[in-house]
Structure formats: structure tokens, C-alpha cells
Design a protein that fits this description.
The chain contains seven helices and no strands. By secondary structure, it is an all-alpha fold. The radius of gyration is 22 Å and the shape is elongated.
Length: 133
Amino acid sequence: MAAPADKTDPFDPFGVAAAMTGWCCLLKAVEEIRDIDQEMMETMMEADAAAPAGLSPEAGAKLQGVVSLMRRLQLDPEAVRRSEPETMRALEAACRACGARSRCERELRAETAGRTYPDFCPNAARLDRLRHA
């Protein structure tokens, strides 16, 4: 008499589907870890690098994230810079120090950042205040 654990799926007698599901989960975990490692490496390199007098190209690229997000939220970054320069500096500083940069970039590319930014953006409260002002 066979034990209940010996039952096989009639549509997958060799367990290929179960093995593929396991591999897909592992590959997704590896991708997430790689993204986290990249974020950590960039953050550590920024902390070690001396800041030049002007913005470095990397810092300028990072600030594009906050500018792109502001535009997605129907905010004019230049108008905010003129009317509330301290707020804009705070937005930029938080963006430069952000640890969720890769998620931000993914969300911006997927055009979902306008909905999901409160989940990961350190500027969420400031941006919400600007939107409702």
C-alpha cells in the first residue's frame, strides 16, 4: 500500500512544474538581493567620496528622480525652487540620501511612481504637502 505522500500529480508525474516554481522563486529572490546590494554599494561609495564644489554627474542623475517624480505628481520643480527654495533643498537632500533608489527608478520607468511613492520615498510627506498646498 502506498503512503499518501507518494501520490503524484497526474498532469505532472515527474514534478517538473513544482521544480520550475521553486527555481522561479529563487531567481526572483536573487534579483531582489542584487538590487539591494547595488543600492548599498552606491550609498557606501557616495559616503566615501568627497563632494566637489558643484554637483557631480552622479548626484545630478540622482536628483532627476525627485524632479521626475514631482512632474508625475503635477508639481513644477522650478516653481517650487523659486517659491520654496528650502523645501526644494530638503527634497534634494533626502533624494541624495535615499536607500530605495533602484525601486524609485523601476517605479518611474514603469510609470507607477505617482501611485506608489508613499511606500518607499523619504520625500512622501513633503511632496504631499506641496500637492495639497
